[in-house]
Amino acid sequence: EDQVTQSPEALRLQEGESSSLNCSYTVSGLRGLFWYRQDPGKGPEFLFTLYSAGEEKEKERLKATLTKKESFLHITAPKPEDSATYLCAVRVSGGSNYKLTFGKGTLLTVNP
Amino acid sequence: DAGVIQSPRHEVTEMGQEVTLRCKPISGHNSLFWYRQTMMRGLELLIYFNNNVPIDDSGMPEDRFSAKMPNASFSTLKIQPSEPRDSAVYFCASSLLGSLGGYTFGSGTRLTVV
Prior knowledge:
A: six-stranded mixed β-sheet, B: mainly beta, seven-stranded mixed β-sheet, four-stranded antiparallel β-sheet, 11 strands, globular
């Protein structure tokens, strides 16, 4: 069974304090790893897709990386507006399989 | 583009009542997904459609749940009869089949069954 595990469950940072969130996965054949941001009371918002080990994507203060077993979301010099729950998800290969399996997320709080 | 539109935003109902959640996907998207989110279990896929046809409903918890997509611009998720353990936030998302990008989610329906 495909599994996605995110750590830590919650993370508190001071503004400007860089850190990383982890997403480890066990799947039969990875066809994409996705990062989303979710603000309270809203639906998840798409950030990045990574397809192969070694790939990196960047957006403002966020950088996502991928290995064969895990992905990291690096947050450089975070600001309070980066506070949100960050979700990762995987899509696996096979037939018409087009669904995403999500981890439970990391709740990030950035204090001013 | 108005995005994925879900209604209602909040629903409070009594145990045993029928509940219908509605979703309008982004125009041109041909894949539609229904997810349920709880603190304990996170985001769980209930069912998804490609070109209005249900592809995988293995996540539907039991026969009390049913979903339809009568056309490309509308889908419903129905719970009958509802139970307190159905209380959760239900999200609809849409995507373009074959796209390598992510889904676009709606704002969700918060369901409370008392």
